[in-house]
Amino acid sequence: MEDHRSEFRLEKMCDTLHVSRSGYYKWRTGETSTQKLRKAAIMERIQYHFADHKKRYGSPKITRLLHKEGYTVTERTVSVYMRQMKLRSVVSKPYRVQTTDSKHELSQ
Question: pTM surpassing 0.70?
């Protein structure tokens, strides 16, 4: 809309695009809300901790780390943010010793 203001009337563009004029002006002069800034900061810290711990930490452990940093955020919120960023913890299976029983009855 901003690029075509010299060609078309603003009222006509708002009508065509089904946007209110007040909404357009609010978007044009609006600033980023504190909630969006907080979400961006938390998402940045989630990505940092996730990468720092070799992609093994899930939302419970990352939530604990964020609490230690002073963020007040719930585990569910962290899991929602992780899902939005497509971060999924890699669960490594515990090491199991595999031995071969060379004294079984089948070999002779």
Answer: no
